Amino acid sequence: MNKSAILCALLAGLGLSGCASKYADVPTPTRFEAAAQKKLQAAHHWQVIAGHVAEQLAADLSIGDKLAGRALYVPQPGGEQAFVEGFRELLITALVERGVPVATQPQGALSVDVRYAAYRFSPDRVVNQYRYGQLTSLAVGLWGLGAIGSAKVTHAVGVHVGTVLVGVGAWLDGLNWLEQEAGGKSREASGPVPQSEIVLTTSIADAGRIVVRKSHVYFVADADVALYWSRPAAGGTVLQVSGDCGGEVAKCAR
């Protein structure tokens, strides 16, 4: 077999290597397109999402005058997770700030139903998202550092090496800025992919018919799962305080 035939065979093999069979026993698993999801890490974030939900509710209620002169009522049943109770309070404030009438009693008002669910996934989840250009940047950086390392240290060369070093540092800092700021990486939350996620649904019904409904999904920091999973214990909450309690927890409890 001549060289031309071998080359053609290699090219044909490479061309077919990326092709899949038309038939298979089971579907091939594929990934979703890359997406961003908010990670709640502070009470201020609760306020932000409450304002976002209130903005959506106000906009939808204004279409077709769904309130018809009535007010909204946000129940506060108590005994819920810290996040849910905090979200309800912040939602009331956000609705009032946006001019939506909110009643303190349920009579004659449309009730705002807040439904909440928390889910825990595998602790070993990873983003597994490749960023193009990193290997090229690393190669260029090592090339520049290699040139510095091979230089003979004389006064003139030292100045040159220092100039190159500063230039490489500035170049790397520029790349880091492009990746973090221009590339949007600074928006990414720190730490591993959270194990816990929550689904928050807010809806308003009128005479048994849902007129507004919004659902949102968020990550929650693994270190703060008690705020999203735990309900207050029956019989009150024990508060840890500093000072002289006489050595008895009962004297420091409410």
Oligomer: single chain
User: What order do the strands of the largest sheet run in, or round the barrel if closed?
Assistant: 1-5-4-3-2
- The total of helices stands at 6
Query: What is the helical fraction, as a range of percent?
Result: 25-40%
Mean pLDDT: 78
Report the C-alpha radius of gyration, rounded: 30 Å
How many individual domains? 2
Overview of the molecule:
With 254 residues, the protein is α/β, with parallel strands linked by helices. It contains 6 helices and 5 strands. The chain has 2 domains: 39-125 and 194-252; 134-187. It has helices at residues 3-17, 43-61, 82-97, 134-149, 155-182, 225-229, and strands at residues 39-40, 72-73, 110-120, 196-206, 209-220. Strands 1-5-4-3-2 form a 5-stranded mixed β-sheet. Helix 3 (82-97) links the parallel strand 2 (72-73) and strand 3. The longest helix has 28 residues, at 155-182. Mean pLDDT is 78; it is low at 241-254.
Topology:
Blueprint: H1 3-17, E1 39-40, H2 43-61, E2 72-73, H3 82-97, E3 110-120, H4 134-149, H5 155-182, E4 196-206, E5 209-220, H6 225-229
Parallel strand pairs: 1-5, 2-3
Antiparallel strand pairs: 3-4, 4-5
Summarize the structure.
The protein has helices at residues 3-17, 43-61, 82-97, 134-149, 155-182, 225-229; strands at residues 39-40, 72-73, 110-120, 196-206, 209-220. By secondary structure, it is of the alpha/beta class.
